[in-house]
From TrEMBL:
<dbReference type="InterPro" id="IPR025110">
    <property type="entry name" value="AMP-bd_C"/>
</dbReference>
<dbReference type="InterPro" id="IPR012694">
    <property type="entry name" value="Propion_PrpE"/>
</dbReference>
<keyword id="KW-0436">Ligase</keyword>
<keyword id="KW-0547">Nucleotide-binding</keyword>
<dbReference type="GO" id="GO:0005524">
    <property type="term" value="F:ATP binding"/>
</dbReference>
<dbReference type="InterPro" id="IPR032387">
    <property type="entry name" value="ACAS_N"/>
</dbReference>
<dbReference type="Pfam" id="PF13193">
    <property type="entry name" value="AMP-binding_C"/>
</dbReference>
<dbReference type="GO" id="GO:0050218">
    <property type="term" value="F:propionate-CoA ligase activity"/>
</dbReference>
<dbReference type="InterPro" id="IPR045851">
    <property type="entry name" value="AMP-bd_C_sf"/>
</dbReference>
<dbReference type="InterPro" id="IPR042099">
    <property type="entry name" value="ANL_N_sf"/>
</dbReference>
<keyword id="KW-0067">ATP-binding</keyword>
<protein>
    <recommendedName>
        <fullName>Propionate--CoA ligase</fullName>
    </recommendedName>
</protein>
<feature type="domain" description="AMP-dependent synthetase/ligase">
    <location>
        <begin position="64"/>
        <end position="450"/>
    </location>
</feature>
<feature type="domain" description="Acetyl-coenzyme A synthetase N-terminal">
    <location>
        <begin position="7"/>
        <end position="61"/>
    </location>
</feature>
<comment type="similarity">
    <text>Belongs to the ATP-dependent AMP-binding enzyme family.</text>
</comment>
<dbReference type="InterPro" id="IPR000873">
    <property type="entry name" value="AMP-dep_synth/lig_dom"/>
</dbReference>
<dbReference type="Pfam" id="PF00501">
    <property type="entry name" value="AMP-binding"/>
</dbReference>
Length: 633
């Protein structure tokens, strides 16, 4: 209780005494020159944090640790795809980053230039990100799973001077060549990068383009000893651009600053993740996503922690692989996604129990709603706090979480906790814009400006889109909309009910897709479910559910299917009432998701309504949507 009371005071201070609060947090990083102003919000909604300060992300992540921890583990690379395991100390990481920085400089890259990174989860990708930060170049990492079309639009948008890439990635033991996709993307794009630095893993042969393609291995040898000092940049200098997942439409290019981001991450290591210097952080994400930027690369390293970079699946060679890494590298903080936990849940829990997990303090999960059955399962298997984090690519670090030494008892399953310090979170009525102050009212989750340090500065090269997309959706107010729909209970815990686009309106009753999904997934046979609202002449909209069974062999015949469908409907009736009952529950093998594991409800909805599903370039498995299409026929 007192812990929670303390946190309430901590949060209040972060809002009411904003500049003093962030001034203190800013002492967690190194500054070449101190800032003269903590927050300039003279031109809302554009916030300029730590103006006048000079710093560097790479210095804070790498160089400043050389004094005390040069020989400590910094980057732990594990690939179950290529059976390679290699540990870099801070000293070694520092050397590799300088070599990469020297190579980029030799290709003409300098401060403010963009460098696009299209790479699998290999150490050179981390070197490239840190090398860009080192020389003040702006990186734009594109997830390695994207094909030419998506890649081309990102090349066009970022107009990079150089691209860093590799011959191939590997997924489930299958080599995925990257170079042909990259060459095709450059062909499709109207912008042509001058140079392409190619890391050759020896997985797939590729054709070199004379005069453009540079061999990393050879260039590295030429620059073994080249010294590249950190370029001190303004706190507001852009460090990178990154695209949102594209779950709801065209991805948006998020632009992040330098100083605010470094401070936000350093503070989050202390107040959210409880990671200490010298410990090991393991985030199972990919560098192509924001979690990978903040919590595979920058956050842990800024915090003086070792970070694990894992290339491979969670179930290969078996479902114990992640936990074996926790034991081996004494991981203290782990970060993953609900979708990955749901995968593990299908396997025997002896895969978890087999390992010594005593080093682990907590497991953080983010990216999509963490349903209660999944949270319960992993919590009881691990016996550790499971902390749901709610945030967005735009914010760069959590908006909702439990903070400051949380205990298992503080978690409420189904809730990502409370507003994180620095975020002035409000629930607003989406029609009137009025603030909903009472408990248990549903509204849009919004953030009053300024956004705290570390959040997006703007949409890359499109200030208007930043203002129009994020700050203009609530009538009469300039607030940042998350476009998520939520509810806050009397204790200040939030529950995310789904995206505002996904709210279903059945005969005047507004329901979050998440509420219905949560209810359906409490059926013991349901592994995963997506609910969408489908236009209906009579009721406006009806809910349709698509569920994956834990054991598909249960669907022996039509009678068995009908029985299951009836059971699911009955559960929803009992928990939420008949208005929320889906008009149909259909069973599928797999649900359509983005490459980052998010349900593509808009695509399912479009297919159900016989519309064109729109931009599907971020979709993982096209067969999943086809199956739903076939069911509608
Ligand atoms: P786009 O903005 O391009 O449509 P996206 O919103 O999926 O894609 P991300 O920034 O990767 O892109 O995802 C952020 C969104 O993910 C949040 O707005 C929210 O809808 C969902 N989300 C993230 N974490 C959680 C969580 N802990 N609980 C519920 N939902 C979450
Ligand atoms: Mg979004």
């Amino acid at each position: 209780m007192s812990q929670q009371q303390n946190y309430a005071d901590f949060h209040r201070r972060s809002i009411e005494d904003r500049d003093a609060f962030w001034n203190e947090q800013a002492q967690l990083i190194d500054w070449k020159q101190p800032f003269s102003r903590v927050c300039n919000y003279d031109n809302p909604p554009f916030a300029r944090w730590f103006e006048g300060g000079l710093t560097n992300l790479c210095h804070n992540a790498v160089d400043r640790h050389l004094k005390d921890r040069a020989d400590q583990n910094a980057l732990i690379f594990v690939s179950t795809e290529t059976d390679v395991e290699h540990v870099y100390s801070f000293r070694e990481l520092h050397a590799e980053v300088q070599r990469m920085a020297a190579i980029l400089q030799a290709q003409g890259v300098s401060k403010g230039d963009r460098v696009l990174i299209y790479m699998p989860m290999i150490p050179e990708a981390a070197f490239a990100m840190l090398a860009c930060a080192r020389i003040g170049a702006i990186h734009s990492v594109v997830f390695g799973g994207f094909a030419s079309h998506s890649l081309a639009s990102r090349i066009e948008d970022a107009s990079p001077v150089a691209i860093v890439s590799a011959d191939a990635g590997s997924r489930g033991g299958k080599v995925v060549p990257y170079k042909p996709l990259l060459d095709e993307a450059i062909r499709l794009s109207s912008h042509k990068p001058a140079k392409v630095v190619m890391v050759d893993r020896g997985l797939a042969g590729f054709e070199r383009v004379e005069g453009r393609d540079v061999d990393y291995g050879q260039a590295r040898i030429e620059h073994m000893e080249t010294v590249v000092p950190c370029e001190w940049v303004d706190a507001t200098h852009p460090s990178y651009t990154l695209y949102t997942s594209g779950t709801t439409g065209k991805p948006k290019g998020v632009q992040r600053d330098t100083g605010g981001y470094a401070v936000a991450l350093a503070a989050s290591m202390k107040h959210i993740y409880m990671g200490e210097p010298g410990e090991t952080y393991f985030s199972t994400s990919d560098i192509g996503w924001v979690v990978g930027h903040s919590y595979i690369i920058y956050g842990p390293l800024i915090g003086g922690m070792a970070t694990i970079m894992y290339e491979g699946l969670p179930i290969r060679p078996d479902a114990g692989i992640w936990w074996s890494l926790v034991e081996k590298y004494k991981v203290s903080v782990m970060f993953s996604a609900p979708t990955a936990v749901r995968v593990l849940k299908k396997y025997d829990s002896s895969f978890i129990k087999k390992y010594d997990l005593s080093s682990l303090k907590a497991l953080f999960l983010a990216g999509e709603p963490l349903d209660e059955p999944t949270a319960q399962w992993i919590s009881s298997e691990l016996g550790k706090p499971i902390i749901d984090n709610y945030w967005q690519t735009e914010t760069g670090w959590p908006i909702l979480s439990l903070c400051n030494g949380v205990e298992k008892a503080d978690s409420k399953f189904g809730s990502p906790g409370k507003a994180v310090y620095g975020y002035n979170v409000k629930l607003l009525d989406d029609q009137t814009g009025e603030e909903l102050k009472g408990g248990n009212q549903k509204g849009v989750v919004a953030i009053e400006g300024p956004l705290p340090p570390g959040c997006m500065q703007t949409v890359w090269q499109d200030d208007d889109r930043f203002v129009n997309t994020y700050w203009s959706s609530v009538p009469g107010k300039m607030v940042y909309s998350t476009f998520d729909w939520g509810i806050r209970d009397d204790d200040g815990y939030y529950f995310i009910l789904g995206r505002t686009d996904d709210v279903i309106n059945v005969a005047g009753h507004r329901l979050g897709t998440r509420e219905i999904e949560e209810s359906i997934s409490s059926h013991p046979q349901i592994a995963e479910v997506a609910v969408v609202g489908v236009a209906d002449q009579l009721k406006g909209q009806v809910a349709m559910a698509f569920a994956v069974l834990k054991d598909a062999s249960l669907l022996t015949d039509e009678a068995a299917r009908l029985k299951l469908e009836g059971e699911v409907m009955k559960i929803v009736d009992g928990q939420l009432g008949a208005v929320a009952r889906p008009s149909r529950v259909q069973f599928v093998n797999v649900l359509p998701k983005t490459r980052s594991g998010k349900l593509l409800r808009r695509a399912i909805q479009a297919v159900c309504e016989g519309r064109d599903p729109g931009d599907l370039t971020t979709m993982d498995d096209p067969a999943a949507l086809q199956q739903i299409k076939d069911l509608q026929a």
